[in-house]
Amino acid sequence: MHPALKRIGDLILGTERKVRMRVTLAMIAFYGYSISSLLLLFAIDIGLVERQQGLWLMTYIWVGMGTFYLLVRTDWSSRLGNPGMDLPQCLYATVAILWAYMIAGEVRSSVLMLVALVLVFGMFSLKAREVVILGIFTVASLGVIMTIMTRQNPHIDARLEFIRFVLAASTLPAVSGVAYYVSQMRARLIEQKAELAHAFALLQEVASRDELTSLVNRRHMQQRIEEEAALQLRTHEPFCLALIDLDHFKRVNDQHGHAMGDLVLKEFAQAALEVLRQTDVLARWGGEEFLLLLPNEHPGDAQAALLRVATCLKRHQNGPRASGLPVTFSAGLTDHPSGEPLHETLERADQALYSAKAQGRNRTVARLAQTAATDQANSLADARQV
After folding, report:
1. Which of 71, 74, 130, 322 has the CB geometry, 3.0–4.6 Å to 87, for a possible disulfide?
2. What is the spatial distance between Cα 94 and Cα 323, in angstroms, rounded to a whole number?
């Protein structure tokens, strides 16, 4: 689309998706009013409609159309509790049609067809209850207008108006019934769509969460660190990974049972989430192992975060309904250089974790990418000397 046309479209319809959709529906009404106005001007020109009455109706139509457009386009309609102004627009259009029926003279029968058009429009935008309101209002208003017309104008055949009313009163409820049914079907489809979306969200939650600890699972964490690595290529922001293992967890299961082991796992997860940042991601990596992602964090700050987790875990174990077991953890911490394959970063974190266990557990050992590269270079140099 040409940029100038797009700017005009955005100006008229808006850029926000919901507002744009509502304004588009209002523009359909604008099209109908435009055709009706041209026919009304033609009727005035040929003398079928008295000029002053026709101009008053024209003023009514376009003042209302302009008001509804502004309310919907500026989203003031949402503040009024009726975002699309659907029922007010339908009632307003019905009044305009019945007004036209009063002044249309010989062609008034043709005007009645527009009433059915409003009901058809309403079936796709109104709630079922609103369709009933519109149908009752239309039939009752038509009966009142026909009665007034026959009493004030002796040239109007009351018998002919009675026939028209009976036909309209029998036809419009049928159209209203169809509109009511369609509205109910539309409401059910919207409800089913919402239920499906909720069920899909629950499935995604189940698929990405560990059932015991409610932490994200390994599959979701793998995806999350891949996203972080891709982001790092664009922003060059650092991030760290820490592989965490609960010390002597097998002994807990063997001596106190698996139920106590599950409680310890949940205690650790709760303690960690209590002191970690909202941007940090902790996952159950497998068994008693956890993987911690620390976005936009340098190793020094990451070590401080792990120390806070250890302190909070100790405090949790002395709290009410706690395991009471002095469980500690070992952690292997590393940074991720931009562009490095993730499996190398994870392997380095695993090596650091192995060192933490070898040094007596209950500690964090950092093995940074630069240090690892230096150690590797030194090893190669030693091998050449040999």
Report:
1. 130
2. 71
Report whether 84 contacts 77 (CB < 8 A).
yes
Domains and CATH numbers, the chain: 3-203 (no CATH), 218-385 (3.30.70.270)
Per-residue pLDDT reduced to its tens digit, 239-253: 999 999 999 999 998
For residue 113, list its beta bridge partners.
Answer: none
Burial 315-330 (b: 16+ CB within 10 A, else e): ebbeeeeebebebbbb
Closest CA to 335 of 345, 324, 325: 345
User: The dihedral of CA 150, 153, 157, 160: what is its sign?
Assistant: negative
User: For residue range 22-40, what is the model confidence (pLDDT) as tens digits?
Assistant: 888 778 788 888 888 898 8
- Report whether 342 contacts 226 (CB < 8 A): yes
Q: Give CA–CA dist 186/163, Å, rounded.
A: 34
173 exposure class (CB count in 10 Å sphere: 0-12, 13-18, 19+): middle
What's the alpha-carbon Rg for the chain, to the nearest Å? 37
User: Do residues 72 and 84 make contact, with C-beta atoms less than 8 angstroms apart?
Assistant: yes
Say how many C-beta atoms besides its own lie within 10 A of residue 72's C-beta: 26
**The pairing of beta strand 329-335 with beta strand 239-246:** antiparallel
> What kind and span of H or E run contains 241?
strand 239-246
Cβ atoms of residues 261 and 253 within 8 Å: yes
Measure the CA–CA gap between 146 and 194, rounded to whole angstroms.
45
Check if the beta carbon of residue 116 is closer than 8 Å to that of residue 171. Answer: yes
The single-letter DSSP state of residue 232 is H
